[in-house]
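Sanity check

After download, print the first record. It should look like this:
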Amino acid sequence: MNEIIKEKYIEEVLKVGGEFFAQFNDPTEIKATRENYEKISSLHPSAYKFAVNEQGELIAWTVVIPTSKELANDFIERRITEQELLDKTEYSNTHDALYLFAAFTKPEYRGKGYVKKMTIAQVMEITENKPKETLVFAWTVSKEGEAAIVSVARDLGVVIKKRRKKEEAGRAEE
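Expected structure tokens:
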């Protein structure tokens, strides 16, 4: 991808992502900043995926963060925050966990499978076609996100673990 075009997409991702996720007003979330973009991008070349329309305009993107099972489980169980998950994640040639961090599609393009297709491609690329050997996890904030996770899990043949709700944190599995 042309670096000038890629830079334009990155700026849009940071702007729209910042606006969308700011509504949750949670200081423990990973913020849409250039610094966080650089860190995530350094973890794997497939961490970010972009979809564009015929005019070359960005219409959807997904972000997957490769990390470790230990950090994944700490995050799922609410022992660490989302920002701590990123801060503690180090570059490695082998990541045994994938955080399905963010997905966004412009409203007029929703329901066409962009998020599902890109997320599956990322998981397959990062795991080298071995998704069942990797802990895949997510923290959904919308019913659309929840539906996408269910569909991705079904197509990959994996269970996607979800972050516990605050009221569930610390309770033993029943």
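If your output differs, re-run the checksum step. Summary of this record's structure: Helices lie at 3-22, 34-43, 69-76, 82-88, 114-126, 143-156.
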